[in-house]
Structure formats: C-alpha cells, structure tokens
Design goal:
homodimer; 10 helices; 0% strand; DNA-binding
DNA sequence: ACGCGCACTAAGCGCTTGCTTAGCATGCAA
DNA sequence: TTGCATGCTAAGCAAGCGCTTAGTGCGCGT
C-alpha cells in the first residue's frame, strides 16, 4: 500500500481548491479543511500558499514535458510520431485537467523566480513539438509553412481542454485526444 | 469626439485589472485608482465588483458572437466561409486578448444567474461553427467525421490566444489568424 | 443670489485574509 | 520515569477586503 503523507494530502487539497476557485480565490483555511486539518497545519509542511502553488505547478510542468518527450521517442516515422505526441499531450491534459488548469491559468500567480523556473519546461515542450515538425519537413513527409506557429496551435488543442473538460462528461479523453491527433495529421501531412 | 463617461472609465479600468490579476485577485480599490477615482466612486456607477465583471463579460460575449455571425454570413462557399469565420474569430481574440481573457477565464466567477445568461452566447457561437461545418459536409465540400468536436477544436485555436497573446509581440494578430484559417481548411477540406 | 441635485470623497464598519505564536499530546530512547 | 523531538491545534495579529454612510463641492436653472 502507498502511504499518503500529510504533506501530500495538503498538496492534493491545494490542487482541488486552486483548480476550482483559482489561486487568488482560494484561502489557506479552505486547503486545510479539505485536507482535514487545522489552518495552521498548512505551515507545518509548506512555507506559504505560493510555495504550495509552485510545488503543484512544477510537478505538473515536469509531467507534461515527460509525456511529450517520451511520445517523441516512440517512433521514427514523422507522421506517426506527431500523431502520438498530439494524442498523448491532449490525453494528459484531459486526464489531469485540474492540475493542467493550475499549470496553465495560475502561471502568472507564481513569484518571478518560480515563474522563471517553470518557464524552462514550457520552452522544452514547445521545442519538442517544433523539432518533430521540422524533422518531418526535412524528411519530405510533412508540409508545414510556419513551424513555430503550427507547433503552438497543436499544443493549444490539448491545453484548451483544461478550460472545460471534466472527467465523466459526454466525451472521453481518449476520444478527444484521437480527434486532435487526426486533425494534427491532416493539418501537416504533405499531399 | 467621443466622450468617455466615468462609468466607462471604471469599466475600462476593470478590464485592465481583471485581465492582469484575475477577478479574485483584483480589489475594488485597484479598479478605482486605475480610473483615477476614490474607492467609493465604483459604487456610484456600478452595483458591485461582480456586476462590473458581468458587464465586461456580457459585452465581450456579444461582440465575439457578432464577429462569428457576420463572418458566417460573408460567403456562401463553405470553404471560404470557414476560412473567414476562423480568421475573424482568432483575430478578435488577438485584438481583444484582455477582454477575451476575462470572457474565457473568469466565467466561473460570475453568479449563477449571470453565468446562465452568458452561456446562451457560448452555445450560439458553438452552433454557428457546427452549422458551417455541417453545411460544408452536406454540400460535399468538407470531410468532417466529428462535427461538434472539430468545431470546438477550431474555436480553441482562437480562444487559446488570449492565454499568452500580447499586442506588440513578435507575431501580429493577422499573422496568427491567417495561420489558423489555413490550418482549419486543411483540417476539414475533402480531398 | 440662491437652492437643488448630482458626482464624487473621507472615513470607517464588520469581516476575512495569510501567517505566527505558544502550547499540547503522543511516541520513543535511555 | 524522564526528557525530548515530532506533528499538530487554539487563538490571535496586522493588514486588507467589499461595501456603506454621511457629507462636500460644484454646475445649473431660476
């Protein structure tokens, strides 16, 4: 069995609260009570409300980068690789829509130092998608006029899921991720 | 010349503040000082902080719907109509990224009644895009397997601009809107 | 000259905020 | 049995919150 520490319970509570009400709209008392603890307990395990946000955001950025990096390594065929990358990136955002919402929408609430640190993961994610497109163009398989812009657009499909996606809704994450992957191929394949 | 009333100055100040700090992160004192007035002046012209948000959000939704509706009426050719709709919708979100951010990200901060009112505009926007795709399929010009999902994805391209777009950045709104329009046609055109 | 209404402000009320302080129960080593 | 570290809480502090109240200055019709 995996034991959940008090520190992790507070992090989970913070994810729920931040995703539901936003960082500024969440009180430390709310986080504490979701974790079944007193307001002061938050400060036994975490330095501040912002450091709770940073922990959640940093972990979320790392996991998103890991998803797209391993997808990029999954295939050598540019079309198939792109399909897998878009599928996995969108699926991750659907399956982790609460963390994703914090990653995407509470970025500005981080301190300057913390924002700069997670920004490196964002650049790596964009670079992975750009590299996949550029490689496909080099191999004469993809037709992409604007590589950075198209990379951004492909990532937007996944990112925008966190704005409205709820698990248990009428469409599954797999269904949406498959759609995005198909659209991505149509957008970029050379005819 | 157009005269700007105190009420409008407060609305403009609220747009700036909400877009920059979010609804919960903005104080009524901040709005007042951006408008060059005392904190109490807010309540001379508006009922509450939330009614300020509702005014901004409602107007933003109306303008976005107007943009996509008139784009839909601009052409009878399904491919060209889709191109114009996606172009205009994305361009509006780039040119109005601050209002767009409030429309998209502060939706949950509205009261239940206000959110329900604004939701009708969202449904109309989605329906306009779905109708344009369905009509193209009916005319045998477009190939769209999942009409609602694809409509959502096309709107996502524009909506996601508000997350990061800043006027005066390295890419113009026109440039990005053109890219989105091209991608939209590639995504949906029958080959 | 005067009175009235309107746009606005100074001051502050009751409450909530992030966070701190002081202390208490438990478990464990000696 | 004692001593102490650990993990937590009760209570509360200073600051800031949305919003109200009571009033002030000014423009305008008469």
């Amino acid at each position: 069995m995996t034991t959940i520490t008090a520190r992790e319970r507070l992090l989970n509570a913070a994810v729920e609260a931040f995703a539901e009400k936003g960082f500024a709209g969440t009180t430390t008392r709310d986080i504490a009570s979701r974790a079944g603890m007193s307001p002061a307990a938050v400060y036994v395990h975490h330095d501040s409300k912002e450091s709770l946000l940073f922990s959640v955001s940093l972990d979320g950025h790392r996991r998103a980068l890991e998803v797209i990096t391993s997808a990029a390594a999954s295939s050598t065929d540019p079309v198939n690789r792109l399909r897998v990358m878009v599928y996995e990136f969108s699926l991750w955002h659907a399956d982790n829509s609460r963390v994703g919402r914090i990653v995407q929408y509470e970025y500005h609430a981080l301190t300057d130092e913390h924002r700069a640190e997670v920004a490196t993961y964002r650049r790596d994610i964009e670079k992975a998608m750009q590299d996949a497109l550029a490689d496909g163009v080099d191999q004469g398989v993809l037709d992409v006029v604007d590589v950075p812009g198209t990379a951004f657009s492909l990532l937007s499909l996944g990112v925008d899921l966190v704005r409205w996606f709820e698990p248990g809704g009428s469409r599954s994450g797999h269904e949406l991720a498959s759609l995005h992957a198909d659209l991505a191929v149509r957008m970029t394949r050379l005819r």
